[in-house]
Amino acid sequence: MIIETRSAEQTYQLGRELGSKANKGQVFTLVGDLGVGKTVFTQGLAKGLEIQEPINSPTFTIVQVYDEGRLPFYHFDVYRIGDISEMDEIGYEDYVYGEGVSLIEWANLIEEILPARRTSIIIEKDLEQGFDYRRITIEERKA
Question: Could you tell me which CATH number the domain at 2-141 has?
Fold first, then answer.
C-alpha cells in the first residue's frame, strides 16, 4: 500500500492510526533518509499506543522503552550500531519477540536479524511534489 501525505500532521496521523491498531508482538521497520519524517511518524505511532510522554529518537541509546501505554513500546534507532552483535547486548530478541510493539528505525542496517513477520514502512520525499510531500510505502511481511 502506498500513502501520500502532504504535511507533518498527516504523517503523524498515519502513524497514530497504525499505533491504535497495533497488536502485542507487532514489529514495524522504518526506513528513510535523514529529515524525511521518521520521528514524526514514530511520535504518531506512540500516541496511537496511548503513550503520553515525549518520544525522541534514541540515537545514542539504540533502544528507548516506553511502558505506560496500551502496550509497551520499544523504539530502536540502529543508525549508529557498529556491529550487529550490539543488538544481542541490548537484549534485542527479548524486545522484538516480547509482549510489546517494536519500531526499528534504519532497519535496513540489521536486515539479517529482522523477524520475517513485520510491517515494513519506507518514507520518501519528492521535492517536485512539494517540501512537505511524503510517499509512504507500507508492506505487511508474513513468515
Answer: 3.40.50.300
Residue that is written with C-alpha cell 499505533 in the block: 19
Query: Please, what's the b/e burial string for 124-143 (b: 16 or more CB within 10 A of its CB; e: otherwise)?
Result: ebeeeeeeebbbbeeeeeee
Does this model's pTM top 0.90? My answer is yes
List the pLDDT tens digit at each of the 143 positions of the chain: 999 999 999 999 999 999 999 999 999 999 999 889 999 999 999 999 999 999 987 767 889 999 999 999 999 999 988 888 899 999 999 999 999 999 999 999 999 999 999 999 999 999 999 999 999 999 999 87
Cell of 77: 534507532
* Terminal alpha carbon distance of the chain: 19
- Residue indicated by cell numbers 511520535: 43
